[in-house]
Amino acid sequence: MEMLIQNSNPDIICLQEIKMNDKVLNEYGYHCYYNFAEKKGYSGTMIFTKDQPLRIQYEMGLNQFDQEGRFILLEYDKFILINIYIPHGGRKKENHPYKFSVINKLLELIKTLNKNVIICTDFNIAHNEIDVKNYKTNYDNNMFSYEERAKIDELLNLGLIDSFRSLVKDGNIYSMWPNGFNARERNMGWRIDYIFMSKNLEKHIKSVKYLKEQLGSDHCPYIVDIKI
After folding, report:
1. Taking Cα atoms as reference points, which of 190, 107, 209 lies closest to residue 143?
2. Which residues neighbour 197 within 8 Å (Cβ) at sequence distance 6 or greater?
3. Average pLDDT, 10 consecutive residues per value, the chain (228 residues)
4. What is the C-alpha to C-alpha distance for residues 85 and 121, in angstroms, rounded to an integer?
5. Secondary structure of the chain in the HEC alphabet?
6. Whole-prediction pTM value?
7. Backbone phi, psi, residue 106, to 5°
8. Whole-angstrom Cα distance, residue 146 to residue 135?
9. Catalytic (active-site) positions
10. In this structure, how many other beta carbons lie within 10 angstroms of the beta carbon of residue 37?
11. Which of 195, 199, 120 is nearest to 157 (CA)?
């Protein structure tokens, strides 16, 4: 974390699945907002930000989801920032009803917002074939089923963009690699971490990058340089 901050000097850092229940991190001079899960060592989100927000919201109105600390909304003058950790869904898709209820609630929320929105998320869904190394064997699997991918289409149809794909059309770029089988070294990955944003912010994006070489998790950081 310290090296990432030193190298990038970000204005905002959004973290998902922090698995913390106490404020034990060095806050590096940022304003820090935590949403801990009620269950110890599980889920959770946090945001480091240089600018203090106008408003903070920690719940979406779904009981299980809110208990798991998966959501933080910060409202600023020019935009609303949402940090959200979408549930995995289960290897056998046993938790898809829960996963879809969360996504549907997010879609409803976005429709009510009257400012530009930026969504930082582990969405636990790869959108297109280019976003999964082994897409041919995953069409009906969790994180790449047709039903899940359609939910990203719904999100984009609300006037949002996938900030990475607005600038980069190349394949073989991922944000998560399963543990084992040297998946990261072999680049056998999934792109399931995104920063979605209102389409009229697209012209302000300067650069986008997944930091594959940043270790410490099965996911890697995603950085967007945007001037609003």
Report:
1. 190
2. 116, 117, 118, 119, 160, 161, 163, 226
3. 85 97 91 97 98 98 98 98 98 98 98 98 98 97 98 98 98 96 95 98 98 94 96
4. 6
5. CHHHHHHHCCCEEEEECCCCCCCCCCCCCCEEEEECCCCCCCCCEEEEECCCCCEEECCCCCHHHHHCCCEEEEECCCEEEEEEECCCCCCCCCCHHHHHHHHHHHHHHHHHCCCEEEEEEECCCCCCHHHECCHHHCCCCCCCCHHHHHHHHHHHHCCEEEHHHHHCCCCCCCCECCCCCCCCCCCCCECCEEEEEEHHHHHHEEEEEECCCCCCCCECCEEEEECC
6. 0.97
7. -65, -45
8. 12
9. 85, 122
10. 21
11. 199
- Specify the residue for token string 């084992």: 180
What is the per-residue pLDDT for 8? 87
**Range(s) of the domain holding residue 59:** 2-226
* CATH number of the domain residue 85 falls in: 3.60.10.10
* 12-16 sheet: strands from edge to edge: 12-16, 45-49, 31-35
Q: How many domains does the chain contain in total?
A: 1
3-state SS record for 40-72: CCCCCEEEEECCCCCEEECCCCCHHHHHCCCEE
**Which residues pair with residue 63 across a beta bridge?**
none
Alpha carbon distance 160, 71 (integer Å): 19
**Rounded to 5 degrees, what are φ and ψ at 101?**
-65, -35
Q: Residue 50 corresponds to which amino acid?
A: K
